[in-house]
Every structure is written in structure tokens, then in C-alpha cells.
Amino acid sequence: MEKINHARKYAKDFNILTRLYQYYALYILYIPIFSLFYRFKCSRNKTLEKKPYIFAANHISYCDPFLMNMVTVRPLAYMAKKELYEVKGNFGKWVATNISRLGGFSVNREKLEVSTIKTCRDLFKANFNLCIFPQGGIRKNKKIEEINKGFVVIAKMVKADIVPVGLSGLEKYNWNIFKRPIVNLKMGTPISYELSEEEIIQNWREQVAKLTGYELADLK
Known about the structure:
There is one protein chain. This protein has helices at residues 16-34, 64-72, 89-101, 114-125, 150-158, 197-212; strands at residues 39-43, 54-57, 76-81, 104-107, 129-132, 143-144, 162-168, 182-187, 215-216. The N and C termini lie far apart (46 Å). It has a single domain, classed as Glycerol-3-phosphate (1)-acyltransferase. The longest helix is centred in the first third of the chain and has 19 residues, at 16-34. It has 6 helices and 9 strands. It is globular. The protein is an alpha/beta fold. Helix 3 (89-101) links the parallel strand 3 (76-81) and strand 4.
């Protein structure tokens, strides 16, 4: 059996069916269920132009991709760590299939590959936006620390501005319907891809720290 390249997707793969699957997952499954346990507050940037962006958020839970759909209200494509596509057995196939249906594609977190750049270019051609979590993994310590610089390289190669997004309130899972803690989803101001790498990273870190109320840790 030919091995599927989950890192390489084409413009035709980001289509109306992807959007419908995202809307179904968000409005039929996620929001009705999780609204029983949380209160969601979205602060959107209504001045964004009608063009594709890279939405870059801090990463606090496995629910974050759905939170990003909720706050952006735009069709999104997601970078998903390649390990999610390497789970064995039928469950692994189910995970890989559904991530792909939701607009996800595989990414090597250790190095940026050519297939990743090509996929990013194609998803923008399809008028999808890219969702990425620069921290490279879930961080629940309420600090904005070191981040993966790959999102800056992608922004410059595809010539797309970056919109910082701050997610907070879901650092711990709650299953008590009487508590319902608030989950805040806040958009920041676009960062031009034409800025230097250092300026983009610092701007993103500062905005996300402000949006979340997290500590802005010193870089090593």
C-alpha cells in the first residue's frame, strides 16, 4: 500500500467540504457540548482585511484548534505534529483521517520541510487561513517563553501577515457544569511579515502576553 504524504496537500484539498466539516465539528459538536462546562468570551479584530492571514496562538489544550475556529470565524488549515499521523492501528487511521478532514496537515517540528511550504502556499490560494501554535506544544505554565521560529519563515515565504491570538482559561479541564469557568479568546493586531525575524517574534510574544495576562519570560 502506498504511504500517504500527510504533509503535502493541494489547493483542491481545502474546499467547501473542509469548511462544512469544520462548521459541523464546531457548531454541532464542540460548542453545544463544551458550553455546558465553560463560558466562552471572544474578542475579535473587526478591522482585519478580507485576505488570508496566519493566525498564531499560544497553545494551552487539545481543544485549541476549535477555539481558533470560534474566534476567527474563518476557514482554517492547521499544522499538526507528524506524530499524530503515526499512531498505529484503526484508531490511528481514524485520527489521521479526521485531522485531514478538518483541514490539518502534518508538520515536522524539528525542521521546516519543502512540502510544508508548498502546502501553505496552496491553502492560501484556496483562500484558507493558516492556524499555527508557535510554542510547538501545549504549555500550561502561564508563561510566554521560547517559541519555534518556523512560523516567521513561513510568513515571509508565503508573504502573509501574522495575527496573534491569546487563549486563556482552559489550562485545566473542567467537567463541573456548575462552575463553568470563562475561556477568553482574544485577537491582536496584525504583524507585517516584512519586519525582521526578531521584531516579529518579540511583537508576537508581547501581544500574546498582554492578551492572555501571562508572564513574558526572558529569552535565554
